[in-house]
Amino acid sequence: AGERIQRGERLLRETSSLIGPDAPADKRFAQNRMACASCHLENGRQPDAVGFVGIAHRYPRRWEALNREVSLAERINGCLVRSLNGRPMPIDSPEIQAMVSYMTWLSSKVPAGRTVDGEGLLSIQLPERAADPIKGKQVYNYNCAACHGNQGQGQLKTPNQPAAGYVFPPVWGPDSYSTGSAMYRVLTAARYIYANMPLGRAVLTPEEALDVAAYINTQPHPSPTLSQPDYPNPATKPIDYPFGPFQDKFPESQHKLGPFGPLEAAAQ
């Protein structure tokens, strides 16, 4: 069990070389060189960074993107397909079982049913205006480009050796998260950025976080290959999900960039 837990943690850190483009041919499930830990910081241990502490107790649960209940293994595959632009692993594969074991181990000291501090994302105060990609570019160039690159290309662990993966992941372009990722939703990305970026000194205001999220998410991102469109029930789409159809009267552009206040009010 200990070896399987350790392998699960390693899969989060070394995703590209173990189950990505640089893995043996039969193990190439992820299609970009981001790692799970690119977003789930400290291998899922960091609060307010979509962490994994306690996650094993929250599954199986309903996932509205598929309009059905899913297991933890299925949810891991959902992230693999949407965030890493890949294809699902067999549910009984050693890799996915190792990841489940690691997440179960992280959850082992959390009583079932108890909410974990920092298990989700921080709420932010929303401005009355839409997110502004032009302002976001200024915020990005000043606060983000040093790590993530002037062209959003990220920073490799070893220059000119993509197989080693990234120390700072790309935030747009072919090796970044896909349009099916939750991070492609501007409000979701803003909440993540506000809590965690710049890494180690999160200093952005909520408006700055929202604008920089709009900037990086109006740049090119790959599109995932899905067997069916996400959120087949329009009533369950998050307000910042940027693809119609919607049940409300608001245009796709507002679901993409806001202002989100009227969307929130309409959803209540």
Describe this structure in words.
The chain is mainly alpha-helical and 268 residues long. Helix content is 36%, strand content 4%. It is built from eleven helices and four strands. It has helices at residues 2-13, 15-19, 41-44, 72-82, 94-106, 133-143, 145-148, 186-196, 206-217, 252-257, 261-267, and strands spanning 61-63, 68-70, 155-156, 166-168. The protein has a two-stranded antiparallel sheet with strand order 1-2. A two-stranded antiparallel ribbon has the order 3-4. Helix 4 (72-82) packs across helix 5, helix 6 (133-143) packs across helix 9 and helix 8 crosses helix 9. The model has no long low-confidence stretch (mean pLDDT 95).
Quick structural overview:
The chain is mostly helical.
Write the SSE topology:
Elements: H1 2-13, H2 15-19, H3 41-44, E1 61-63, E2 68-70, H4 72-82, H5 94-106, H6 133-143, H7 145-148, E3 155-156, E4 166-168, H8 186-196, H9 206-217, H10 252-257, H11 261-267
Antiparallel strand pairs: 1-2, 3-4
Helix pairs in contact: 1-5, 4-5, 6-9, 8-9
Task: List descriptors.
single chain, 11 helices, 4 strands, two-stranded antiparallel ribbon, mainly alpha, two-stranded antiparallel sheet, 268 residues
| Helix and strand composition category | mainly alpha
Distance between the termini: 45 Å
The biggest beta sheet is recorded as: 2 strands, antiparallel
Strand order of the largest sheet: 1-2
